UniProtKB/TrEMBL annotation, chain A:
Keyword Nucleotide-binding tagged: no
Gene Ontology terms: biological process: response to antibiotic
Domain of life the protein comes from: Bacteria
Official protein name in the record: Transport permease protein
Leader sequence segment: none
Gene source species: Nostocoides jenkinsii Ben 74
CC terms in the record's Gene Ontology section: ATP-binding cassette (ABC) transporter complex
An MF annotation (GO) of this entry: ABC-type transporter activity
Compartments (UniProt record): Cell membrane
Record domain ABC transmembrane type-2: where: 18-243
Family: Belongs to the ABC-2 integral membrane protein family.
From TrEMBL, chain B:
Name of this protein: Putative ABC transporter ATP-binding protein
Organism of provenance: Nostocoides jenkinsii Ben 74
CDD domains tied to this protein: ABC_DR_subfamily_A (cd03230)
UniProt domain ABC transporter: residue ranges: 8-231
Pfam families given in the database record: ABC_tran (PF00005)
GO MF annotations, alphabetized: ATP binding; ATP hydrolysis activity
Lineage, broadest ranks: Bacteria, Bacillati, Actinomycetota, Actinomycetes, Micrococcales
Amino acid sequence: MNPRLTLLTAGRVLRQIRGDHRTVALMLVVPCVLIGLLAWVFTDRPMIFDTIGPALLGVFPFVVMFIVTSIATLRERTGGTLERLLTTPLGKADFMVGYALAFAVVAVLQGVIASAFAIYVCGLDVAGPGWMLIVVAVLDAVLGTALGLLASAFAHSEFQAVQFMPAFVLPQFLLCGLILPRESLPGVLSAISDFLPLSYAVDAMSAVATKTDPFGDVGTDLLIIAAWIVVSLALGSLTLRRRSA
Amino acid sequence: MMNTDAAIVATSLTVARGGREVLHGIDVTIPRASVVGLLGPSGGGKSTFIRAVVGVQIVASGEVRVFGEPAGSPALRRRVGYVTQSPSVYGDLSVRDNVAYFGAIVGASHADVDRAIETVGLTDHAGQAVANLSGGQRSRVSLAAALVGSPDLLVLDEPTVGLDPVLRRDLWDLFHRLAAAGTSLLISSHVMDEATRCDRLLLLRDGRIIADTTPADLLARTGAPDAETAFLALIESAEATR
C-alpha cells in the first residue's frame, strides 16, 4: 500500500461524489427526514424515540455507504476503469482503502448533520458525549463501504447490486436489536446476531445514548466492527484480480 | 536467447476464454520505437492479445514479455500505457480531473496533464464532465489518460473508432511523432485502411497471426492495390493451403 496513491484515490472518489449534487443532498438530507419522521411518530412516547433514534443514526451510514460503494465499484469493474487501474502502479489496497477513506469523510458530514438534527431539533436525549455518535457513525460507514466492496464482486449488473442491499442488510437489521432486544430473540437467532456486525453498531449507539460513561462498552463494540472491516477488506481484495479470464 | 531489444515478445501464447481457445500459440516479436498495427476482423483475438500484453489476461500457456519482463509485472506498470476499447475514464469527473488522477498515479506533473489534454485536442473542454462529451471526445480523454505518464510502450485497442477523418489523421501523426521520440506503440484496428499508416503490421485472424510484415511488403507480396484486398488475398491463400 502506498499512502500517496491511497489519498489520490480517496480524493478522486470524493470529487466524483461532490460533482453529483443530488447524491450529496440525498446522503445528507434523507437521514434527517427519517429521524424527524421517527420523532414525530413517537411524539407521545419520547422514551421510544430515545431508544430507537441513536440506533438509526448507526444504521443510516452503514446502509447508505453499502449501496453507494457496491454500485460505484461495480461501475469501476464494468466500465473498464478498474482493469486500467490494475495495469498501473496503484495497488489493490490503495483502491480499497481509498474508497473507505472517502466514504469515512462523507460519514463524518452525514453523522454531524444527522446527530445535530436529532439532538437539537428533535430533542433526542443522549446520556454520553455527542461526539461519540459521530465516531460510531464513521466506523459504521466504513463497515458499509467494506461490505459493499466485497458484495460488488458478486454482482454482475446494477440490478443485482441493488438487490444485495436487502440480502446483506435487511437480515442484519431484523436481528440487530432494533425490532426486539437481542437477548429476547430465539436462541439460534440470538447467536447469529452475536456474529453480525450491525448488532455491534446498534449496541455501540445505544451505549452512547444511555450511559454517561460508555467508553468501555463502545470500545469493545468498535473493536468488533473494526475486525469486520479488516476481514471484509481483505476478502474484497481477493476479489480484485489483476488477471481475469 | 532472449531478445531484449524488442518491445514485446510473445512465445507460444495460448489463451482460452469462456472454454474456447481464442489465441492458438502465437509467436511474435514487436520492435521498439515503431508503430505496429494489430489488424484483423472483430472476434479474431485482437483485444485478447492486447490484454495479454498489458498483463490482465489469464494465459493458458506460453508467455508474453515486455522489455524483457513478464507482462504485467510491477516493474512494467509505470512504463506501459493501456487504452481499452471502450473509454475507461470516469464520466462524472471533468477531463482535467480524469487525466490528473491517472497522471498522478504514475507521477506526472501538472504540466504533463495540460500537455496530454492539449495533445488530444481537448484543452477547450478540460473543465467539462466526460459524460457530457461525444463518444469520440471520450475516447480521446481515455487516450490522454494513458499519454500523460509518457509511457515507453503504448497499447491502444481500437483508438480511432468513431473519430472523424481529420482527427484520425492527427492521431496517426501523433503516434508517429511518439515513435520517433522512442515510444513503442501497439495499435489494434479492424479498419484495414489504417494498415498503411503503420510501420509494421500483424494480421490476426481466428487466433493466428497470418502475416507479420510491413505495409509495402504486404502489397508487393500479394500484388493487391490496397490493404483490404491484400488481406483477403492472404486469407484465401491461407485457406487454400490448409
